[in-house]
Specification:
Oligomer: single chain
Number of strands: 13
Largest sheet: 7 strands, mixed
Distance between the termini: 24 Å
Structural class: alpha/beta
Strand content: 25-35%
CATH superfamily: Ribonuclease Z/Hydroxyacylglutathione hydrolase-like
Bound molecules: fe (ii) ion
Radius of gyration: 17 Å
Length: 251
């Protein structure tokens, strides 16, 4: 399927946790929320359009309680301000290494004040939970420092570590191609350990192998076709054209 901008796909698992997925903005940012109505928990990952999220949740008598950030590039944090303004008590989670201190980095990173931080080492896993929601959080730097992925409840939220067919660029301030390669190796191990029919939600909805732009693919499909996950070595990975390009807007 192909979601319109701000359109939501909602599914509910046997465990009672709802997964809301939408795509928003000119770079087709994919946003995911984990919702536990029973306990009033609404955790949004990387909100792009804060007002859009607030409106959609309000229609269902829900309020956001947590924002979980895969990284702090502007297009992954654009909606934080509006949501925080409406809900000042909201918890905002991110990895402590995810804000670049460099001046150049400020072009790409939005200053984001976290209320809670993760501080685990690269490729370590920590668990985040609230109510019925339990997510594995993996520190996966490379595209950006302090990048994390989150998985649980039949979805793997890849942020800009992985898209359906490719992986996040590594030519921005704070990028580290070698770290990205290690993070991808970890991701491959983790994805192989998960059920193949879980959804991989990419940070952006980019082209798939057949020229379509699906909102997500299954883990099985990603493992079979994703070019970065299937690169035989770091040299082959590093030569992939999407690692570096001139358009500095698409972060
Ligand atoms: Fe990014």
């Amino acid at each position: 399927m192909a979601l319109g901008s701000g359109e939501f796909n909602v599914s509910k698992g046997d465990d009672g946790v709802e997964i809301w997925v939408t795509q928003m903005g000119p770079w087709s940012n994919m946003n995911t929320a984990f919702i536990d109505r029973e306990n009033g928990v609404v955790a949004i990952v990387d909100p792009y359009d804060g007002v859009g999220w607030l409106k959609a949740l309000n229609n269902e008598d829900l309020e956001p309680t947590h924002i979980l950030l895969t990284h702090t590039h502007k297009d992954h944090t654009a909606g934080v301000k509006a949501i925080r303004k409406a809900h000042p008590e909201i918890e905002v989670w991110g990895h402590e290494e995810s804000v670049s201190p460099s001046l150049l980095g400020r072009i790409f990173f939005r200053r984001t004040d976290f209320t809670h931080i993760w501080n685990h080492e690269p490729n370590e896993v920590t668990v985040w939970n609230c109510g019925l929601i339990e997510l594995s959080v993996i520190h996966s730097p490379g595209h950006s420092p302090g990048h994390v992925t989150l998985h649980g409840h039949r979805v793997y939220v890849a942020g800009d570590l992985l898209f359906t067919m490719r992986s996040g660029r590594v030519d921005l301030p704070g990028s580290d191609p070698a770290a990205q390669w290690r993070s991808l190796a970890m991701a491959k191990t983790v994805l192989r350990s998960l059920p193949g029919d879980w959804r991989l939600i990419p940070g952006h909805r980019y082209d798939w192998i057949d020229g379509t732009t699906p909102d997500w693919v299954t883990i099985e499909q990603a493992l079979e076709h994703n070019l970065s996950l299937n690169a035989p070595n770091i040299e082959a990975f590093d030569a992939l054209s999407f690692n570096r390009f001139d358009d500095e807007l698409s972060v």
